[in-house]
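Retry 2 of 3 after timeout on previous attempt. Resubmitting structure tokens to design endpoint.
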């Protein structure tokens, strides 16, 4: 009895201490655990709760999306299941950067579970049909990185999921590649751990190989290559096979891929229950030579029936049939990889870890299916956009909400909006196209208003636009951006605004306050508010609100 007990205790304690994570690094086309040099294979599951449709929530304090990694009760509940499933990584699609993740990240780490996190959220992402890489999206990405970089078990960040997903949307790809470039640069500039940055693509036969090439190719000086690459792949259904599923072809296609590649989602559900036999193929040779495992889709069950547990509505979860199948596959396989030393030897220059140490790869040429410029959009420039905002007389009204994109379309049928327009197929990026959607809308309003000789009646658009205190060049002369430069200089010496040059001065991309405001147009109260406000586009609203009483009297 005693003996049995102590054996059990030893086993148990071994189980509890064996886990715990240490940072992963990318060397060549493999992930490695830095503490022991072992190759790391994803035995993952997508872990993202959704609000049930029409479920009420407090919009003033809660996000439209759910972040379970900020909810200790829930992540503890699920951790038991995740451990039982044998997963070593979860993919989380939405992080609320204002929340604290210490607790969940710690217990996951102690259980040997890594996290790969998407940086976007539904309202702040690169839209395949109307793509921009702007200050607001970049800002969102930065705050997520700021809030998550400190956890050693963050395996990587994804700058996008299935953005360019067919031949009709390929021109959105440069915006995603710019996001890779700028988030990598941001992590470096902040001195954070070099957390790998990558992208999760879909599996469209017409563009699959062009997309994969695009994220690792370098034309000229471009440094926006991904540190890893994911494909959401649903080719293997039921009891398929390596030969017939398409896995064999994918393995051949990607065998010389320069960065790690894995299935960022898998788990076709046309056959139910899902036997998950693809896991055995994915985590054995020859696939282990090419792929780093994958992320089963998904933990929670919703309408489309991909889940392995169901939430009960009383805060519990119950296991569904697929749970056992997935668990049995994951716990019975232990893929064998190569050691970090061998990976280092196999890279071109003996490998700085996470430094994309591979020989330059040429970008594929455009085809009728693949219309993508090798020119990526510029890094979003906060200072420029804040100064632009400061120059407006006619702006979006803060008193109503409107569909800014519709408003822009409406205005731009009448005036030339090239400065806020983009074309990723041609590599044309208007000089204010990196400003936020609201700033772009205000810019269009302002151009329209100026074109009509500053006629106040032309700044209305059914109440969607509003005039603020007139600005003039003197103001731009006296307003300084965070980097100390005068807005007039940032926007291009010889304002009017429409003459601003593309190369904007001041590489400082920090989000920040506008300092040194001493324009006559602001009195002391307003100036104080400005120096406390964080962004000029909020600032215009503050001015407005402060002056609302006056304005409404007019
Ligand atoms: C955590 O999630 C549960 C279940 O969804 C919910 O009832 C609870 O309010 C959440 N707690 C916090 C702090 O959000
Ligand atoms: C986007 O944000 C708006 C306003 O904040 C909100 O009403 C809407 O539900 C959000 N949509 C999504 C998909 O999150
Ligand atoms: C890596 O290369 C070095 C130098 O050529 C060699 O001594 C070492 O054995 C190699 N290591 C592996 C694991 O191949
Ligand atoms: C400053 O301007 C604000 C907004 O117009 C106004 O409410 C406030 O009374 C002014 N303060 C002074 C000291 O003039």
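Retry 2 succeeded. Sequence:
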């Amino acid at each position: 009895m005693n003996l049995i007990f102590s054996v059990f205790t030893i086993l148990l304690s071994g189980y509890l201490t064996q886990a715990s994570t240490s940072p992963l690094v990318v060397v060549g086309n493999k992930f490695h655990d830095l503490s022991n040099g072992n190759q790391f294979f994803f035995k993952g599951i997508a872990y993202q709760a959704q609000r049930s449709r029409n479920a009420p929530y407090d919009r003033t304090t809660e996000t439209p999306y759910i972040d379970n990694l900020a909810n200790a009760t829930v992540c503890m509940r699920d951790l038991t299941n995740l451990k039982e499933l044998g997963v070593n990584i979860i993919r989380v699609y939405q992080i609320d950067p204002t929340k604290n993740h210490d607790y969940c990240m710690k217990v996951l780490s102690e259980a040997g579970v890594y996290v790969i996190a998407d940086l976007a959220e539904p309202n702040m992402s690169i839209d395949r049909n109307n793509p921009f890489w702007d200050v607001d999206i970049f800002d969102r990405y930065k705050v997520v990185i700021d809030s998550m970089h400190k956890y050693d078990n963050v395996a990587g960040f994804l700058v996008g999921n299935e953005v360019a997903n067919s031949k009709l949307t390929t021109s959105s790809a440069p915006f995603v590649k710019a996001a890779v470039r700028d988030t990598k640069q941001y992590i470096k500039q902040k001195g954070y751990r070099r957390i790998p940055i990558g992208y999760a693509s879909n599996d469209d036969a017409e563009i699959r190989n062009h997309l994969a090439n695009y994220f690792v190719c370098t034309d000229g000086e471009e440094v926006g290559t991904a540190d890893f690459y994911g494909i959401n792949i649903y080719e293997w259904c039921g009891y398929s096979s390596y030969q017939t599923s398409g896995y064999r072809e994918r393995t051949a296609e990607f065998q010389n891929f320069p960065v790690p590649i894995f299935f960022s989602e898998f788990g076709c559900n046309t056959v139910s229950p899902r036997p998950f036999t693809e896991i055995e193929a994915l985590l054995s040779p020859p696939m282990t030579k090419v792929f780093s495992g994958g992320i089963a889709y998904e933990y929670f069950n919703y309408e489309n029936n991909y889940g392995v547990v169901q939430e009960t509505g009383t805060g519990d979860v119950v296991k569904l049939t697929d749970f056992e199948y997935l668990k049995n596959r994951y716990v019975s396989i232990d893929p064998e990889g190569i050691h970090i030393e061998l990976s280092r030897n196999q890279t071109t220059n003996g490998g700085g870890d996470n430094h994309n140490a591979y020989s330059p790869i040429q970008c594929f040429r455009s085809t009728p299916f693949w219309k993508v410029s090798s020119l990526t959009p510029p890094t979003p420039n906060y200072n420029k956009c804040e100064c632009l905002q400061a120059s407006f007389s006619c702006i979006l009204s803060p008193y109503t909400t409107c569909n800014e994109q519709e408003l822009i379309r409406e205005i731009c049928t009448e005036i030339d909006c090239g400065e806020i327009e983009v074309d990723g197929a041609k590599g044309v990026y208007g000089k204010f196209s990196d400003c936020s959607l609201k700033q772009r809308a205000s810019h269009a309003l302002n151009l329209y208003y100026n074109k009509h000789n500053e006629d106040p009646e032309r700044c209305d658009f059914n109440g969607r636009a509003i005039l603020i205190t007139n600005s003039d060049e003197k103001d731009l002369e006296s307003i300084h951006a965070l980097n100390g430069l005068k807005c007039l200089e940032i926007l291009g010496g010889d304002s009017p605004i429409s003459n601003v040059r593309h190369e904007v001065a001041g590489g400082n991309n920090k989000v920040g306050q506008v300092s040194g405001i001493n324009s006559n147009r602001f009195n002391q109260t307003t100036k104080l508010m400005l120096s406390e406000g964080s962004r000029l586009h909020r600032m215009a609203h503050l001015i407005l609100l402060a002056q609302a009483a006056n304005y409404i009297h007019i």
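Attempt log closed. Residues 544 and 550 are 10 Å apart (CA to CA).
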